[in-house]
Amino acid sequence: MKKIINTSKAPAPIGPYNQAVLVGNTLYTSGQIALDPETMELVLDDIKTETKQVMENMKEVLAAADMTFENVIKSSIFISDMHNFKQINEVYGKYFDEATAPARETVEVANLPRFVNVEISMIAVK
After folding, report:
1. What is the mean pLDDT of residues 33-60?
2. pTM
3. CA distance 15 to 33
4. Mean pLDDT, rounded, of the chain
5. Residue 74 and residue 54: Cα distance in Å, rounded?
6. pLDDT band for position 122 (50/70/90)?
7. Which of 37, 43, 29 shows the shortest CA–CA distance to 9?
8. CB of 29 within 8 A of CB of 108?
C-alpha cells in the first residue's frame, strides 16, 4: 500500500503529482527544482545557489518521511547544461558521505520545468 508524503517545508507540487510516495520502506520522490517553498518563486541566483535550494527541498521531503540523505540509495540528476556539472556536483556532494553515497546518474536534457538548470529526484529506503 502506498502512502503519500507531502510537507509545507518543500514546494507544493505544480502539477498532478505528490512530493513523494512511500511504498513499504521505500520512498520515491518527485523531482525537486529550486522553488522557495514559502514564496514559490525560483531561486536562480547562480548554479550553486540553485542546486543548494534543490537539495534543501529534497532534505525536507525526506524528513517528512522520517528519512535523511543517509537513507538515499539512488539519485537522478537532470541538468540543462553539462558545463554546470562540476558546480552542481560540488554542492550535491556536501549532502552525502562519499563512502556511502547513493548510486546516481546525471543526464543533460534539452529543457526542465520552468526552464530551470537542475532537477533532482531520489529513491530512499528505511
Report:
1. 97
2. 0.97
3. 13
4. 97
5. 16
6. very high
7. 37
8. no
Query: What DSSP assignment string belongs to 83-109?
Result: GGHHHHHHHHHTTS-GGGPPEEEEEE-
HSE, CB side, 13 Å, CA atoms: give it for residue 29. 35
Grid cell 520512498 — which residue?
27
5: its cell numbers: 508524503
Name all domains of the chain by residue range, CATH numbers in brackets: 2-125 (3.30.1330.40)
d(Cα 51, Cα 120) in Å, to the nearest integer? 9
Residue type, 85: F
Torsion of CA 60, 63, 65, 67, to 10 degrees: 130
Contacting residues for 92 by C-beta, under 8 A, at least 6 apart = 51, 55, 75, 77, 120
